[in-house]
Amino acid sequence: MEDTTVKKSSPILIVFAWAIVVIPLGWGFNYTLQNAIKLFTAPTPVQAAPGK
Amino acid sequence: MALAFLDRDRSIAPAGYSRWLVPPAALAIHLSIGQAYAFSVFKNPLLALTGADGSHWNLKEVGYIFSIAIAFLGISAALFGAWLEKAGPRRAMFYSAICFSAGFIVSSFGASSHQLWLIYLGYGVIGGIGLGLGYISPVSTLIKWFPDRPGLSTGLAIMGFGGGAMIGGPLANQLMAHYKSAGQPSIPYTFVTMGILYFIFMMFGVFTIRVPRDGWKPAGWVPPTKHSALISDHNVAVHEAWKTPQFWLLWVMLFVNVTAGIGILEQAAPMIQDLFKGSVGATAAVGFVGLLSIFNMAGRFFWASTSDFIGRKATYFCFFTIGAILYFVLPMTRQEQLNSVPLFVGIAVVLLSMYGGGFATIPAYLKDLFGGYNVSAIHGRLLTAWSAAGIIGPLIVNGILDHYVENHMNKEDAYPLILHIMCGLLVIGFLANLMVRPVAEKFWLKDKNIVVPEGAAH
């Protein structure tokens, strides 16, 4: 039977544990997103020749 | 056993321990070892190194480093899966951290002395063993903590492997730039720094991971009495599982899904530039690769979580039907036909989300079919499909491209052929998934004395 009087993990501890992994992931995500945006914002190079 | 603090008995969660502390522990491991996907950032710096005799390494030689690492990932996952079931996740994570970090340190000697074999041994063999151990170590523990949402839990961890490149790539670039500007040997110092940083980060996972007590289940959760016939109430031991047709059908499914994804990943930047000549430059191509990374990661979480609701077979049905159609139409978006960059990018990111989803959903599929008893060990053996795809996929892609170039044909005309081969592979995966049936009774675990906790092993 489950003991309902036991000390539960602190919500602060849970948030802290998630922060340890989310912060570096967020940093990397932001870096990658900045690169990804270049796909839509990079100036279109001058066409050297017609497409066909 | 040496290092007794790593024993499974020492990592049993006390009453009241929140299961939401376990995914960050798993993520710490997967975000670290996922650095492997960003190994390409070292390619050009390694090529620029000069030996004492003035020699340089070529692209092919440097390319073997990643291939060896992925091969050893599969081999070690297959070999050590059964050991992991006994030793527990904490010990496996610890050894993974030791191997992964030691791989960097050994490689730093290889880079500073211009001995490529030392990098093969370090990053490839020792680091590769760390990858395999780390990849499978948290899987069954997560399934055990989340018997109500096995797809979500394993998706969270395996999402980390996709996300690891997003941290590892920029981290390596910034460290190399820092050491270079300080006039220090950039690659050896970067390898050492990364080895130390990743070891510390992985230790967070090692000391946070806990296994639930026998008989633990989420508060208020009652195992469903009615479910799909594919979700087994029985367990299959690893030495029996690999004799079943279901194991090999899943092996084929993972193999074709990974091979198809490699069809895009392997040549993503040159492909978009070749198919849209004059419209997409090198900078935009880098952006395309970044976008693929994001969807590769997000797909792992999205599809694995979705599989908890629609089932694993239906999820793979989506991968192999939508995927096959999209691979077939992708070449039609090129310049000579629809000439639509947004459509090309849109299709490619959906395909990459399913590539990631295939990795993340497979542990839950295994748990459904074989039960939780040996799921880590079975998963480990299944990962040999990844190693095989890591060799066959690039062989197909590079082989066809080389053939076109050597025969003076238009390189861009090779891509439709490559993508249509990937479409064909997904059709094979579709058929394999269709053939998956519940595991026959003769393979079930008979020993009633073995305690099989709710959810999974350990």
Give a short synopsis of this structure:
The complex is a heterodimer of chains A (about 50) and B (about 450). Chain A has about 50 residues and is mainly α. Helix content of chain A is about 60%, strand content about 0%.
Average predicted confidence as pLDDT of chain B: 91
Strand fraction of chain B equals under 5%
| End-to-end Cα distance of chain B | 17 Å
Query: What is the H-and-E element order of chain A?
Result: H
Low-confidence stretches of chain B: 453-458
Fraction of residues in helix of chain B: 55-70%
Q: Span from first to last CA of chain A? A: 75 Å
Task: Please provide a written account of the structure.
The complex is a heterodimer of chains A (52) and B (458). With 52 residues, chain A is mostly helical. Chain A has one helix at residues 11-41. The N and C termini of chain A lie far apart (75 Å). Chain B is mostly helical and 458 residues long. Chain B has two domains: 4-208, Up-down Bundle (Growth Hormone, Chain: A); 238-443, Up-down Bundle (Growth Hormone, Chain: A), CATH 1.20.1250. Chain B is built from 17 helices and no strands. Chain B has helices at residues 22-33, 43-48, 59-87, 89-113, 116-136, 139-145, 150-181, 186-208, 238-241, 245-265, 268-275, 282-310, 312-329, 341-370, 375-382, 384-406, 414-434. Chain B is globular, with a radius of gyration of 22 Å. The chains are: A mainly alpha (52), B mainly alpha (458).
